[in-house]
Design brief:
globular, Quinone Oxidoreductase, Chain A, domain 1, 28% strand, zinc, seven-stranded mixed β-sheet, metal ion binding, NAD(P)-bd_dom_sf, alpha/beta, 2 domains, Rossmann fold, Zinc-binding dehydrogenase
Length: 331
């Protein structure tokens, strides 16, 4: 079987096009798949769409977009996979793909909803922030920013038993965070928030890039606290007017600052990397298909896959305070 794939490419800031690629029959160890649904990861994708500085200098235009995909196997030359199987992967936004078996993150059970499972990695990023920053039952956790990763961080910190607070000036995401179990605050409510934190947060998870919010994180962190960065302080902004490592906060509070976006991909042969990407995703997906975790709070709507550009524009305009969107490709 040979198919023609429609693949989303970002050729320059704001310039999205769909290219046609001919996909030959799969080679041994590969599968030919049709995409069912992809989820937009707003922070990463909108940064590229608006032309913010790349995280890695090697990533330039043209570039692929997206990494949250569920597809159906059309033809398989890979052991353990058959026609009709549904698989989660880091594939970009595209109608069809050739997928090596080793890149499958999860084979979905029959009862799993593809659209919900497509959001699994967004939860993994919040889960990894909670794991890496040492959140424990009773920890005071502050999440700054309530986009998709802010909400997944709130979700996972609440599941971990933390006392969770969150900052956002957007009413709808704040309402969602409240339903998830967090106490929410606007940025102009820093003084009462500081009192509620009673000495400061044990963990501050930052999911935004503004220097003002970084200073806010420094002020609201408690003694020996961890600042867990899912956002990218200063990305696309001029140099800050205040020292981001001001000694009255960084030194006197003995803060630990850590990037928490990555985790080990797989376990090692002796089991020392137990909380790795594959096992974390499998556990989170099991929470989703069992109903204990519901991505409906993240998904603000659904677009046809070829309407990706419109979905980006609506997210940038904060239409109806959208969090993220799903893209449908096949029935």
């Amino acid at each position: 079987m040979t198919v023609t794939a429609k693949v989303a490419w970002l050729t320059a800031p704001g310039r999205l096009e769909f290219r046609h690629e001919e996909l030959p029959p799969p080679q041994p160890g590969e599968m030919l798949c049709e995409t069912i649904v992809t989820a937009i990861s707003p922070g990463t994708e909108l940064a590229a769409y608006t032309g913010k500085p790349p995280l890695r200098p090697s990533v330039v235009y043209p570039r692929l977009q997206g990494y949250c995909s569920v597809a159906r196997v059309l033809e398989s030359s890979a052991e353990g996979f058959s026609r009709g199987d549904r698989v989660l992967s880091f594939a970009s936004h595209r109608s069809h793909l050739t997928l090596p078996a080793g890149e499958v993150l999860l084979k979905l059970p029959d009862e799993a909803d593809a659209g919900k499972i497509a959001c699994t990695y967004l939860y993994h990023l919040g889960y990894n922030a909670v794991l890496r920053s040492g959140v424990r039952p009773g920890s005071r956790v502050l999440v700054i920013g309530l986009g998709a990763l802010g909400l997944t961080s709130v979700t996972m910190a609440c599941i971990a038993g933390a006392d969770v607070h969150a900052i956002s000036d957007q009413a709808r995401p704040a309402a969602i965070a409240s339903l998830l179990g967090a106490q929410t605050w606007r940025r102009d409510q820093e003084r009462p928030l500081q009192e509620a934190l009673d000495g400061g947060a044990d963990v501050v998870i930052t999911t935004v890039s503004g220097w003002d919010d970084w200073q806010r994180a420094l002020r609201l962190a408690g003694q020996n606290a961890t600042l867990a960065c899912l956002g990218f302080p200063g990305r696309g902004e001029p140099p800050p007017s205040q020292n981001p490592f001001d000694s009255q906060y960084f030194y006197m509070k003995q803060l630990r600052i850590e990037a928490v976006g990555w985790s080990p991909e797989v376990n090692d042969n002796r089991g020392f990397l137990r909380f790795n990407e594959r096992e974390n995703i499998a556990w989170l997906a099991s929470l989703i298909w069992s109903g204990r975790l519901d991505p409906a709070s993240l998904v603000s709507g659904t677009y046809d896959g070829l309407e990706l550009g419109q979905a980006y524009e609506d997210l940038l305009m904060r239409r109806n305070s959208a969090v993220t969107y799903l893209l449908k490709w096949a029935a």
